[in-house]
Amino acid sequence: MPRNAADSCDLIVIGGGPGGSALATFVAMHGNRVVLLEKEEFPRYQIGESLLPSTVHSICSLLGISEEIKNANFWLKPGATFRWGKNPDLWSFRFKLPQTPEALGYSYQVERSKFDAILLNNARRKGVEVRMRQTCTEIIKEDGRAVGVVYQDENGNEGRLNARYVADASGNTTRISRAVGERIYSDFFRNVAVFGYFENAKRLPAPNQGNSLHVAFKDGWFWYIPLSETLTSVGAVVARDSLEADTFAQGTESAYDGFIDACPIIKDHVSTGTRIREGRYGQVRIRKDYSYANTRFWSPGMVLVGDAACFVDPIFSSGVHLATYSGLLAARSINSCLDKKFSEERCFEEFERRYRREFNHFYQFNIAFYDMNRDEDSYYWHARSVLNTEERANDAFVTLVSGSAAEQFFDQRIGIGQVLQKHSEGEKDPITAANFDKSKLDLIKVAEGLAEGRFEIDRLAGLRPQVEQKPVFEAGLLASADGLSWEEAPIMVSAGD
Ligand code: FAD
Predict the structure, then answer these.
(1) Do 323 and 22 form a contact (C-beta atoms < 8 A)?
(2) Cβ 355 vs Cβ 481: under 8 Å
(3) Confidence of residue 340 (pLDDT cuts 50, 70, 90)
(4) Using CA of residue 22, residue 24, residue 27, residue 31, what is the dihedral sign?
């Protein structure tokens, strides 16, 4: 087909990261014609290396790549280890709890260049037409509806492609998402990440050698993620203000070294290693990792998935989960619309409400977790205590994410950090011990909610016992048996009817 001719398909996906690949694959698996445009050549570098079990087991099983992931030699991640809160010692959690199915008891730490390439190659095998080095530059709309895209190939030639649906999965730097709504930032999680890679740095003692290590220090916190026997990803998450401060005056590398010096546990762990200075991992990189959400996740003919829609602070490694989960939810909506099963509005409202709910669970949990590490002497931690947070005045973001006004939202969360603190210290009844207004406590609800989206994918993949599905809101829809479209929920008939 000539490059400049307007050709057409059912769905155009912009971006071949985990969100875009998952969405494209799930729509192609339903028998639809999908074209994916990716601006880079793969394998390409990406941050976001620590994954959750439901992504590497359940999503990958639904995508049909379980064996490939198992054989890819990714580093086994049994859990995570923290130096967080008042406790000066390291403490760990493991994914494998007594009630956790064996198959979900661990995850992987991955080099994203390899992981993302597996997902994208699989999309190709499942029938997606993947076009590399094609950059989407514009969304074409007719009467307010997205009907296609303009793209540029590697030689700067422009082309036009029409589709019944367009998905923006182009990640955190997207401009395309503006075609759907406005990006609103959180004030609580306005962080900057500075990160590099080490060869032969230390491992935690067995059995935690595969764990991600998260260490709070005065300027923020560090991640320390083992990616192989010898390769380690080491990053500091600090306040945005540090960027302007003296810390960065001598350049990024010296700021990075300075943060490592200021954090004894990380300094000790990298002491046996050498920082990599060449190749894919040879740079110290900086990424603004502000949390945000778009005012809308869909508009007629168009949907946002993954970081293009929203992003929440990476402390609990939720990014790839949210990207692939939103890819699955969006695929259900697009497949159902293409099948003319329900109205577009109904399908995409289902997608947006479920995705926002999942995002909100992580946002709430992260706030509680940050609040656990109060330190009055540290600018970073003082500013991020629930009592002091600027987010209280940021009604726009909080209302968007949680549906309640900021003041009310934060008042209800005061004290939850203390409960987590007590819990990490092994307190039997942290709720009584924390001595605060129990009527406000919705930690259990938050904790249950945090697992909901992931459990749903696990059940679809047959990795957790089936339970009766319930709509997540009144008149909401349910997942079909294969997980790829929406079904009407059975009408409940009360005993008196
Ligand atoms: P991406 O992975 O960003 O993929 C988007 C793709 O779109 C890219 O390949 C890009 O080349 C392409 N693209 C961009 N523009 C265009 C265009 N115009 N046309 C065509 N293609 C385009 N997540 C975790 O799960 N675990 C972690 O440990 C973790 N740590 C993180 C640490 C930091 C500091 C940060 C900032 C994030 C972290 N994340 C983590 C989050 C994770 O990086 C993202 O959430 C995840 O990559 C989102 O996937 P995505 O598919 O939405 O976007």
Answers:
(1) yes
(2) no
(3) very high
(4) negative
pLDDT higher than threshold 70 for residue 339: yes
Q: Which residues line ligand 1 (CB under 6 A)?
A: 14-20, 37-40, 46-51, 135-136, 169-171, 193, 235, 287, 289, 306-307, 314, 317, 319-321, 323
Cα angle 44, 216, 306 (rounded to 5 degrees) comes to 35
Nearest CA to ligand 1 atom 14: 170
Query: Looking at ligand 1, which residue's alpha carbon is closest to its atom 27?
Result: 48
Degrees, nearest 5: CA angle 79-84-87: 110
Positive or negative, the CA dihedral 388, 392, 398, 402 is positive
CA distance 422 to 274: 37
Residue 438 confidence (pLDDT) above 80: no
Nearest-5° Cα angle at 470, 107 to 314: 30
Counting from 1 in the atom list of ligand 1, the atom nearest the Cα of 308 is 52
Measure the CA–CA gap between 397 and 295, rounded to whole angstroms. Answer: 9
pLDDT tens across 40-91, in order? 999 999 999 999 999 999 999 999 999 999 999 999 999 999 999 888 889 9
